[in-house]
Structure formats: structure tokens, C-alpha cells
């Protein structure tokens, strides 16, 4: 099992509606991309300074399924249309859950 974690920092001009669209878009991905076995996401709680604004955790059965997700049209469209216009920064990591 592979875990993919992505952390996003919004640009200063990002609106609350855009943030809501991003969260809804992430939550809709498992219905459109069967390779996603589990997805959780949400905004930072602001408990510590310097954090990112939003994170998503996605689980896949294999690295191959993660690659298929990366290239899936639904993922590519979501990133291009929803996320990229509002992003200031992005960090991601993938690791084996063992």
C-alpha cells in the first residue's frame, strides 16, 4: 500500500469559495478515479505557525496505481482548473505503508 500526501499553500488572493471548491474537488476524486482506495483531506487547523493551508492524504494499492492516478484526466483537469490558479506552493511525498 502506498500513501501520497500533498500539502498546499494558497495564494493571498484565494477566496473562501475557491478553498471550498478545492476541498470538494478532492473529495469527489475517489468517485471518478478507481485507483484511489482512500482519501482524507482538510484545511490546516492553525495550531502551529508556518504550516501549509490544506492537506490531502490518498492511499493506493501500488506505485503503478498512483502513477495511473497522476495521469488520470479527472486528476489532471482538477489540478489545472481548480488548484493551479490558487496555489502559492505545493509539497508532496509518497511512501510505502508496509
UniProtKB/TrEMBL annotation:
Pfam families in alphabetical order: Dabb (PF07876)
InterPro entries: Dabb (IPR013097), Dimeric_a/b-barrel (IPR011008), HS1/DABB1-like (IPR044662)
Membrane spanning stretches: none
Stress-response A/B barrel domain sequence ranges: 2-95
Classification via PANTHER family: PTHR33178, STRESS-RESPONSE A_B BARREL DOMAIN-CONTAINING PROTEIN (PTHR33178:SF10)
Quaternary structure annotation from Swiss-Prot or TrEMBL: Homodimer.
Protein name: Dabb family protein
Amino acid at each position: 500500500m502506498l500513501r501520497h500526501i500533498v500539502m498546499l499553500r494558497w495564494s493571498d488572493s484565494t477566496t473562501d469559495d475557491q478553498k471550498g471548491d478545492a476541498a470538494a474537488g478532492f473529495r469527489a476524486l475517489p468517485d471518478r478515479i478507481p485507483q484511489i482506495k482512500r482519501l482524507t483531506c482538510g484545511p490546516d487547523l492553525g495550531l502551529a505557525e508556518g504550516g501549509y493551508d490544506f492537506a490531502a492524504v490518498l492511499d493506493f494499492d501500488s506505485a503503478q496505481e498512483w502513477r495511473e492516478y497522476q495521469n488520470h484526466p479527472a486528476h489532471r483537469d482538477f489540478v489545472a482548473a481548480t488548484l493551479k490558479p490558487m496555489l502559492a506552493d505545493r509539497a508532496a511525498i509518497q511512501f510505502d505503508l508496509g
